[in-house]
Amino acid sequence: MKLDVITLDGDKAGTIDLNEALFGLEPRADILHRVVRWQRAKAQAGTHSVLTRAEVSYSTKKIYRQKGTGGARHGSKKAPIFRHGGVVKGPTPRSHAHDLPKKFRALGLRHALSAKFKAGELVILDAASLAMAKTGMLAKTLSERGWKRVLIIDGTVDANFALAARNIEGIDILPTMGANVYDILKRDTLVITKAGIEALEARLK
């Protein structure tokens, strides 16, 4: 499996052999779905909370006499049937995370990379580095390449490139160790540097 390597200016910089174990799989939606669901569940804050009958702020005095009113017998304004009363069986702070085997997560990453390759949305970049951190220059270059919603994966993120790109909408930059299924799938174009390819192969071997 060969793919052209380009520079930031769009010039051809040779070709690269891609590992079929990473980029040649037949993408499976069920595997990708499970990994993305695991990622999003792990990122969920889980801080949702309500006040129960024991926690709402009301007096504990009996609200009216037991008999003679013609109404139901009540002893507390905190009861759930009253407005501003406590909530029954409401959400409490908890973790939404669930387990997913490490080998399965690695398999999901391989399928995400293969999905981008099969869709023709994979670009191999010679290097993602800049001599100066100039946002305007980088924005113009990315516009010329037609990259609007793009994820760039590099072995080691160049400081100037990261500074120039951080204020450009739709551009994400991740080191190889931060590459994940959700970020890969949510962007229209996946750009990986040659150093990033080597690091991914070492990570997923």
Summed up:
The protein is of the alpha/beta class. Helix content is 34%, strand content 15%. The protein has two domains: 2-45 and 97-203, Ribosomal Protein L4, Chain: A (3-Layer(aba) Sandwich); 50-90, no CATH class.
Description:
With 205 residues, this protein is α/β, with parallel strands linked by helices. The protein folds into two domains: 2-45 and 97-203, Ribosomal protein L4/L1 (Ribosomal Protein L4, Chain: A), CATH 3.40.1370.10; 50-90, no CATH class. It has seven helices and six strands; from the N terminus they run ββαααβαβαβαβα. Strand 4, helix 5 (159-165) and strand 5 (171-175) form a beta-alpha-beta unit. The protein is elongated, with a radius of gyration of 27 Å. The mean pLDDT is 93.
Q: Per CATH, which architecture of the largest domain?
A: 3-Layer(aba) Sandwich
- Taking pLDDT < 50 over at least 5 consecutive residues as the criterion, the unreliable ranges are none
N/C terminus separation: 17 Å
Given the helix and strand composition, which structural class is it?
Answer: alpha/beta
Main sheet strand line-up: 2-1-3-6-4-5
Return Rg in Å: 27 Å
Beta-strand content estimate: 5-15%
Number of strands: 6
Helix share of residues? Answer: 25-40%
